Amino acid sequence: MEKRGALRAFWQLFRGYWNSEHKWKARGLLAFVIGLNFFGVYLLVRLNSWYNEFYNALQQYQADQFWPLVGEFTALAMLYIVIAVYAIYLRQAVQINWRTWLTDAYLSRWLGGQVYYRLQVQNSDTDNPDQRISEDISQFVNLSLQLLIGFLKQLTTLAAFGVVLWNLSGSYTVELGGWEFVIYGYMFWFSLFYSGIGTGCAHLVGRKLIGLNFEQQRFEADFRFNMMRVRENSESIAFYGGESAENKGFHERFAKVISNFWQLMKQTKILNFYVNGYAQLAVIVPLILAAPQYFAGGIALGGLMQTVSAFGRVQDALSYFVESYDTIAQLAAVVKRLTAFTEHMEVAEDVKAGIVRQEEGQQLAVEDLQVQLPDSRVLLADCTLNLPAGSRLLVTGSSGCGKSTLLRTLAGIWPYGKGKLSLKAGSKLLFLPQRPYLPLGSLRRALYYPGTAAGSDEKLQAVLQTVGLEKFVSRLDEIDDWSRILSLGEQQRLAFARVLLTKPDWVFLDEATSALDEPREAEMYQMLAKELPDMGVVSVGHRSTLFAQHQQELRLAGDGSWILKAI
Question: Where does the sequence pass through the membrane (predicted)?
Fold first, then answer.
């Protein structure tokens, strides 16, 4: 990103929390943290004055001043320690509050309006949204606070010790061409010049770190995601015997991690050579500059030590960007990732559902429905249906003709379609995919998903028995990964249990019985007809046995044409 664009992107991410409903509490706590850092700078100025008194007392052998000065140092040091500890502690409190707010904001946007789904449908190049929400937000908050508070502290240090250094360094006379030039506060000006050159050179040396940090985060996330995919599909991989292929994939992704990290190491090595050389040179420079006055008797030992200390503080303040360049590079990479993620979510949010849903009439009516693929290929065109309550419709057709996409369109999650869906006011719809989603937690929670209602154990026991899962009655509150424990057939029967608990007006089944044998499949459909006779059913499937469970067939050709006929 260009510099102006990067600053604008940072401001867009930064300002939200500080203008939110928590702004006064947030600003007050941040102001208190900044105040503690300012007070810490004041204590450093006091300690700088202590250097003058202490070393002068040593030079003059004033033993009666030694212990009082040691006591003064102890008091100042203890107070400084307390201030420094609480400045960090309260800064972390600000960090927690800010991260919580920002994470909630991103989660709401990501989950709201099925943005998480649309990012995949639109083939967005947003990689690993989970890492951006969990890690990138944490890094953004931490690095932003670290740099902001550090900058303000160093700015205050520069103002305070700049005055001290100006007064201590006095004047320096330069003879040039018979003219004499008097430079007042010459050590302050030299420090300013030295730091300016150092900051510019640090940028030239370390600017490649921004891109390398960005790529490192992406490659690390891809490597982790590949391992997560193996864990989620362990059984399929084991059946295929795909360990060698997965291992090769791991090594390919890890090779990118290592290759980029070597480049990061080399660039960091160059920057560290520069930063450490710059810092070490800054140790001897003030001694060299102050030595003529000291040996000429212009200043005592205490004045020399105070001057060296003040020069070091001013130098540290002016060199803040040199020493923080690696941190700035990391922040720039994080801002780039979060900004890209935000822009992609904005694009997904702007894409509206193609189908218009309205509440009118007493039946399910579809008018002028058109379903397309992202490449504009039409799967279904000008489809009009009228299904009375309790109807049973079977959607058939060859693979890839758009059967599942039709259900996605009716659900309002497929953006590449248009038409009108009319339903009776207050109608409740439930969609069952081929592989049911089982959230982490108890079996009770999995049964009520996506709702959170909790019924009596007797009700749940009766439902489990109805769908043939009575052996799990005693494990309702057992917390585990139920998608791993239950077979696909058992998961599909659990999905039918959800139908009994939810009691929708219409249920849409996308090959929801594909893992069941034919007798069990017929049993599930007959159970729905018996328990929920007024519920409408729309099924997608390939089996010929499904015709006996439905009243009408909607056959899709995949080229836009369709046929509706009675069974």
Answer: 28-45, 65-89, 140-166, 186-206, 273-295
Quote the tokens at residue 14: 């930064």
End-to-end CA distance of the chain: 61
State whether the Cα torsion 466-468-472-474 is positive or negative.
positive
CA dist., res. 562 & res. 564, Å (int) = 7
Give yes or no for a contact between 50 and 74, defined as CB atoms under 8 angstroms apart: no
Residues 6+ apart with CB under 8 A from 348: 113, 115, 118, 119, 122, 124
Reply yes or no: is the peptide bond before residue 519 cis, omega within 30 of 0. Answer: no
User: Is the model's pLDDT at 61 over the cut of 90?
Assistant: no
**What is the rounded distance in angstroms from the CA atom of residue 79 to the CA atom of residue 67?**
18
The 10s digit of each residue's pLDDT in 298-332 is: 677 777 777 777 777 777 777 777 677 778 888 88
CA separation, residue 426 to residues 144, 529, 535 (Å): 48, 21, 14
Other beta carbons within 10 Å of 363: 17
Mind listing the domains of the chain with CATH numbers?
A: 3-350 (1.20.1560.10), 356-566 (3.40.50.300)
Helix or strand holding residue 538 (H, E): strand 536-540
Tokens of 320: 């803040």
Looking at every residue in the chain, the average pLDDT score rounds to 85
Burial class (CB within 10 angstroms; exposed 0-12, middle 13-18, buried 19+) of 270: middle
Q: Where are the alpha helices (DSSP H) in 23-62?
A: 23-59
The one-character DSSP state at 548 is G
DSSP per-residue string spanning 136-178: IHHHHHHHHHHHHHHHHHHHHHHHHHHHHHHHHH-EEEEEETT
- pLDDT the model gives residue 528: 93
Closest CA to 289 of 112, 158, 136, 170: 170
277-283 mean pLDDT: 76
Instruction: Give the list of residues 6+ apart from residue 316 with CB closer than 8 angstroms, or none.
Output: 154, 157, 323
Amino acid identity of residue 84, one-letter, is A
Separation CA 386–CA 398 (nearest Å): 24
Residues 6+ apart with CB under 8 A from 392: 536, 537, 538, 539, 549, 550, 551, 552
